[in-house]
Specification:
With 257 residues, the protein is α/β, with parallel strands linked by helices. The protein contains 10 helices and 6 strands, in the order αβαβαβααβαββαααα. The radius of gyration is 18 Å and the shape is globular.
């Protein structure tokens, strides 16, 4: 199996999330949703490596939802999956055609996300998987929380573990303790075959704006992300455990006393 020299730090975060939230059980068959971005590819590598160390035995497979964009080549991802000894499946769809050419959506992200999720869930079930692993990371938790607060007026994010009763599958997010900058660094050093998003809306969404706002505020008020995560955990928002504040923030608090 392909080896990565710089995966240990990522792996420690993933193992912490998996163990604290009991994300993986013996006999699980887990589909990793692979978009081709740095997050999902890093998650794939981490879960493939974790099979060697986690006492619980599980199977992996990669699933990519092909949205129908032109000139998108998934062959390098297939090669990576082969090197990691992970079966890989591409599901072809007409999502791009429906959203941008048929419906001509001005705000396509919400509908696109629902259609991609539906296709991924169906592919997971057809492949005999009982769980789906998604590449949402630490920064995504904070950004989602703030987007819900600003635009929906509610306290919420996504859950570390979500059971979908209608589909009878479970979604897990093992990267919730991993920062985006750590993922970016690993993906670059490991030379992962990252595919730049061909979506015309990429980089022009409310999430992209919120990412910029939070980065600016964090530069001015160091530790902002950790404080928001601490509030989410203490408030037990959407299944997050209380009193699970990152060690770096605990150290920061002690130094500021």
């Amino acid at each position: 199996m392909k080896e990565f020299k710089d995966i240990e730090h990522i792996l420690s975060h993933v193992r912490k999330a998996v163990e604290e939230y009991n994300m993986i059980e013996d006999g699980d068959k887990i589909a990793v949703g692979i978009s081709g971005g740095k997050d999902s590819l890093t998650l794939l590598c981490a879960l493939a490596k974790l099979r060697r160390f986690l006492p619980k035995k599980y199977e992996l497979m990669g699933i990519t939802i092909d949205m129908g964009f032109e000139n998108v080549d998934f062959s390098k991802i297939q090669e990576l999956c082969d090197e990691l000894e992970v079966p890989f499946k591409i599901v072809k769809t007409d999502i791009y055609e429906i959203i941008f050419n048929v419906r001509k959506e001005k705000n396509p992200c919400s509908l696109c996300a629902r259609m991609r999720r539906g296709a991924l869930h169906d592919a997971c079930i057809e492949s005999g998987c009982n769980k789906i692993a998604l590449g949402h990371h630490f920064d995504d938790v904070i950004e989602t929380f703030m987007l819900n607060l600003f635009f929906e007026g509610r306290i919420g994010s996504f859950s570390p573990v979500t059971y979908l009763s209608r589909k009878q599958i479970t979604m897990i997010r093992p990267l919730i303790y991993t920062h985006e900058k750590e993922i970016r660094t690993f993906a670059r050093k490991a030379e992962l075959p990252v595919i730049k998003s061909p979506c015309p809306a990429d980089g022009h969404t409310e999430r992209a704006k919120m990412k910029e706002y939070l980065a600016t505020f964090d530069n001015e008020h160091s530790g902002l992300y950790y404080r928001i995560m601490g509030a989410i955990q203490r408030g037990e928002v959407d299944g997050f455990h209380p009193d699970r504040i990152d060690a770096e923030e605990k150290k920061r608090r002690k130094e500021n006393r």
